[in-house]
Write a structure and sequence with these properties.
This protein is mostly helical and 217 residues long. Helix content is 81%, strand content 0%.
Length: 217
């Protein structure tokens, strides 16, 4: 969960940085907008998976966790409209180079960060310790596989894996790559690093360091 949250924080921050630069050509504008729309779809799905199955499982296992989980649910309700607003602004920014489109994209990004970033911290500080106490490792792994791994193709896992693995330290890298089997892991490590690095160069600029998943040396 922390790896997912860090990836969201990282690329929201990178998008902020791009928008501070007056020189955004059409190619970069389209790439940043497309990536933000992908992130908003990912974030919606991430919250839906928690609402649909993780929080109910924890409620059944630990009824005393209700207050914490109620706060998570309330956060999701507040965040959802801002996700939709940013998604729409990204679509407009993709199609239009006008200053008004860039201004709305910037404002929508700031509005999402205002509600999302505190939620990510609350989830890490309040909800995840409860989850860790309430669920066994086997229950967590079963939830993660059912919601986040099995429904996705190897292509989707490759894209998500490179995105989540950007900048990870070796310990977190190992945990991430070993959530999938050896065949998927091989594809993830060997087929997607180059395309991910090239896509990042277009989105963020060639001088922004990125760390796609690589085989540890």
């Amino acid at each position: 969960m922390g790896v997912t949250h860090d990836a969201l924080r990282r690329d929201l921050g990178r998008t902020d940085d791009v928008l501070q630069d007056a020189r955004i050509d059409d190619r970069q504008r389209g790439a940043v907008a497309d990536h933000m729309q992908w992130m908003m779809a990912f974030l919606h799905a991430h919250h839906q998976a928690e609402d649909r199955s993780l929080w109910p499982l924890v409620r059944r296992t630990d009824p005393a966790a209700a207050a914490v989980l109620d706060r998570m649910d309330a956060d999701h309700v507040r965040i959802a409209p801002e996700i939709d607003r940013l998604d729409a602004a990204a679509a407009m920014f993709h199609d239009e180079g006008a200053p008004s489109a860039r201004t709305e994209f910037t404002r929508s990004l700031a509005a999402l960060e205002e509600v999302l970033l505190p939620h990510l911290r609350r989830e890490e500080d309040e909800a995840m310790p409860v989850v860790s106490r309430a669920l066994t490792a086997a229950q967590w792994d079963a939830w993660d596989r059912a919601e986040n791994i099995d429904p996705k193709s190897k292509w989707e896992l490759g894209i998500i894996g490179q995105w989540m693995g950007d900048g990870l330290d070796p310990e977190r890298f190992e945990k991430l790559t070993h959530t999938v089997g050896p065949v998927t892991r091989f594809v993830l490590l060997h087929a997607f690093a180059g395309p991910y690095r090239r896509a990042c160069a277009v989105r963020w600029g060639p001088d922004v360091p990125v760390g796609p998943l690589e085989i540890p040396r």
